[in-house]
Structures are given as structure tokens and as C-alpha cells.
């Protein structure tokens, strides 16, 4: 039985777009370019605010909310937003190994920092961050490795 060879990108018919690796998807892109531009900034902002609140809650440990606690939460949120936007902007420009390492390093450092705010030791926080980095690296590396051609060019 003959099968069609996978082709990178392009349209194969009305409503059928060829995704990465040449597999077709019947899902239309229901969002226009404006929604995607807003989401590129909106998602990191929302994640940053949640992260800042979570870090501040971990730091106060169930105690009263103070001005310093609010300031800590907002500064943490701002730092997370800036770093998340930088990673999202510059990591895709790197080769797949570094691309995976940058994104997984950000995830591991973020989780390690959250854990350190609970009062645990720095060594346990670093170990958790490194374990998270290793696990996320394996997932991202596999994802990018299976979506690039032989020369390392991303298939879009």
C-alpha cells in the first residue's frame, strides 16, 4: 500500500494544514494574527502575576500580608515576566540543544526559587531545580529533535 511522503508546511486543502513532520490536522487556526501578538505578551504577564503571588505566599508562610510581602511579590512577578519574555524571544534562535537548555534552565530555576521561599535549605532547592531542569530538558530536546531536518533547520 502506498502512502504519501510527509512534506514540511503549506496548505493541502481547505481547512487542512500540514503541521510539523508533514502530518495533517483538520483544526483550523481560529485566532487571527492580532490575538497571537497579544498572547505573546499576555501569557507571560499572567504567569508572572501568578508566580509572584505564589512566591509571596510561600515567603509569608501563612502569616499576615505586609507591604514588604506585596513588594516582594510584585518584584518577583516583574523579574519573572522579563525573563520569560527574554527566553521566549531569544531561545528559538539557538540550536536545539541550547534552546532546550535555556527553556529547561528557566523552568528549573523558577521552581527552585519557589521552593527556596518555603524555608527549605539551599541544597534541597538547588537539587529540585536541577532535577526539574533535567526532566524538562529531556522533554524539550526530544520535541525539538523530532521537529528538525537533518541540517538542524526547524520544520514549520
Report on the architecture of this protein.
The chain is built from four helices and three strands. It has 156 residues and is mainly alpha-helical. The chain has two domains: 1-28, no CATH class; 33-145, no CATH class. It has a three-stranded antiparallel beta sheet, with no helix packed on it. A hairpin with a 2-residue loop joins strand 1 and strand 2 (16-18). Helix 3 (96-116) runs antiparallel to helix 4 (122-145). The two termini are 28 Å apart. Mean pLDDT is 83; it is low at 10-23.
Draw up the topology in text.
Elements: E1 11-13, E2 16-18, E3 24-25, H1 33-60, H2 67-90, H3 96-116, H4 122-145
Antiparallel strand pairs: 1-2, 2-3
Helix pairs in contact: 1-2, 2-3, 3-4
Q: Biggest sheet, open or closed, and with what strands and sense?
A: 3 strands, antiparallel
Termini Cα gap? 28 Å
Oligomeric composition of the shown chains? single chain
By helix and strand content, what is the structural category?
Answer: mainly alpha
Computed over alpha carbons, the radius of gyration is 20 Å
Could you write a compact summary of the structure shown?
The protein is mainly alpha-helical. It has four helices and three strands.
Core attributes:
156 residues; mainly alpha; 2 domains; 4 helices; 3 strands; 62% helix; 5% strand; globular
Amino acid at each position: 500500500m502506498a502512502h504519501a511522503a510527509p512534506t514540511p508546511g503549506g496548505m493541502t486543502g481547505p481547512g487542512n494544514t500540514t503541521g510539523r513532520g508533514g502530518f495533517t490536522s483538520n483544526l483550523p487556526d481560529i485566532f487571527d494574527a492580532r490575538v497571537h501578538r497579544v498572547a505573546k505578551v499576555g501569557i507571560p504577564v499572567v504567569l508572572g502575576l501568578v508566580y509572584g503571588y505564589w512566591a509571596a505566599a510561600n515567603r509569608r508562610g501563612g502569616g499576615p500580608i505586609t507591604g514588604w510581602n506585596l513588594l516582594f511579590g510584585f518584584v518577583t512577578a516583574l523579574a519573572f515576566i522579563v525573563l520569560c519574555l527574554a527566553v521566549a524571544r531569544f531561545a528559538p534562535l539557538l540550536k536545539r540543544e541550547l534552546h532546550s537548555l535555556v527553556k529547561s534552565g528557566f523552568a528549573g530555576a523558577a521552581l527552585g526559587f519557589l521552593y527556596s521561599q518555603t524555608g527549605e535549605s539551599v541544597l534541597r532547592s538547588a537539587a529540585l531545580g536541577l532535577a526539574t531542569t533535567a526532566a524538562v530538558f529531556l522533554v524539550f530536546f526530544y520535541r525539538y529533535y523530532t521537529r528538525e531536518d537533518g541540517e538542524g533547520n526547524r520544520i514549520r
